[in-house]
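Structure tokens please, single chain.
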Amino acid sequence: MNTDTPEKIRSEFTLPSAQLQHIRELFAEFLPTYQGNASVRLWNGETVIGKPGNPTTLIIRNPAVLRKLVVGQDLLTLGEAFLIGDVDVDGPIKKVFELVDSLQQHSPRLRLHWLAGLKTLGLPAHYHAKETRKSRAKRAMRHNSRASIGHHYDVSNEFYRLWLDPEMVYSCAYFQDTTQSLAQAQCDKLDYICRKLRLKPGQKLLDIGCGWGTQILWAAKYYGVTAHGITLSREQYEYAKARIEHEDLAERVSVELCDYRELSPDARYDRIVSVGMFEHVGLRQFPLYFGKVRELLNPDGLFLNHGITNDTGWRDTPITRFVNRYVFPDGELTRIGEVNQAMEDAGFEIIDVENLRPHYELTCRRWVQRLEAASEQAQKLTNDMTYRIWRLYMAGSAHYFQQGSLRLYQVLASVADIPWQLPLRCDDLYTPDGTQIR
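Here you go.
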């Protein structure tokens, strides 16, 4: 956390009045029509953008941020400045993304950009906390490797417990309405997946990327299956193993610290599920990943793939660079059409495709609220930078799910070219009024 007081920061960055006027002009040029719910305040206490009473204020504590933002024209600057405390957010962080959208939409003419660059020449060139500005991840990490998975998931079980639901589900919930609790919505999601897979007692279920083991435990307890989960996270593995023992389900539930590529080719499962994992696989590895799932699935089996997609395919943008550098070193997203094509190429028949985009927006909003409410504990368990990374990442995810550039799909598939195994309709998933049965 940046422990400098506002007074110390103001004295450190005392600029001539002409330079301050240049800064005001910069904001007028780059955000000429912004009328949103976020304000921008400088290190000296002056508000340069926004209306009085706005619920959220973006505080620029170091003028070097402006110089780098203008000269580099890279919004990653704002994200990294936030991580080290050179930019702060007072109020709900979700409103900041209105500013980000406005900056992305407004592209000043070359002459204006050149003039803007001249106006920043007198600003400080360095971050006062630059010694803490270190990348937490390296893009060169291998897709779905133990190092890349551990980078994100082995932060601390106690850290995740602060803001996840009691079942420790770190994926999109399934809400009945916007007032439903996160805990109940996550239980509904667990059950919904079991119903989509039409689980029956005695079946063998594999969960690829099982997290803290919640789905395999749920399926065993309520549907009578024998369930096996694999994960690359040591922390998740130890947690899941202890929970299986605690709930006395070791005869029917098992967990393994294992890469999906290491699963025995002789193993066979009636049902396979993967929730929030294939985003780590890497686009070039899709044939290997879906081919492995097809190899492990019995001929009359079902496979459900639950994961995030986007509207453009994977591109090099400030947002993707931030995610790869600080959140998911190996993360790559693509369009749902590319996912379905890869599944069909691997020998699957697509049975059902459902977009749960609004559900993930609601989920991320709840996570951010819970994380912000536990900010002091989160920083004690990890550190200020980690807290800021997760706060920014989840708030941004909620924004882009709301906007529509991020989507969340559940794709149900069977082995291709076999007789139809399912009911003619999906009435078994719902009661007549559209709510879930359990």
